[in-house]
Amino acid sequence: MPWPQPEADGTRAPLIALEFRRPDLGGLRRRVAACAAQEGLRGVRLQAFVMAVNEIITNAVIHGGGLGRLRLWVAGGELVCEVADTGPGIPDGRLPLVQPPAEATSGRGLYLTRSLADAFSLETGRHGTTVRLAAAL
What is the pTM of this model? Predict the structure, then answer.
């Protein structure tokens, strides 16, 4: 599925487009929550979207080289969030396609994000990882 992008003609610029590091996570999470609420997400749907974004931005700084880029925009009736990093990528066998076992000590973040988002995609390779998730408005 091609992901809708922020409009190139400037009629609807991204709500957020910035780089972030670990000290920025709390403020970025609050900013995403405020933008999502302004666009109409409420209650459990708002909480789920913010939790999913939080998992991805945290992964970007912990596993993806310490620096991430986030874009948040509205397109096609969805609130879309894209998080990219320039880390080493996710190794084969580390992409959780099913719920990790209860005794697992890691690997729940991506699984949780996939469960919480209405749409989810992930591209990874040796030059970084890009995750896109969306919530229907």
Answer: 0.88
Q: Are 83 and 14 in contact, with CB atoms under 8 Å apart?
A: no
Alpha-carbon gap, residue 129 to 132, rounded angstroms: 10
Nearest CA among 30, 84, 87 for reference residue 54 = 30
Q: Could you read off the pLDDT of 82-96 as tens digits, one per residue?
A: 999 999 998 876 666
**How many CA atoms within 13 Å lie on the side-chain side of 62?**
9
19-136 sits in which CATH class?
A: alpha beta
63-90: average pLDDT: 94
- For residue 38 the two structure tokens come to 């302004």
Strand order in the sheet with 68-75: 16-20, 68-75, 78-85, 128-136, 119-125
Domain locations in the chain as residue ranges: 19-136
pLDDT digits (tens, 9 = 90+) for 97-125: 677 777 877 777 888 899 999 999 999 99
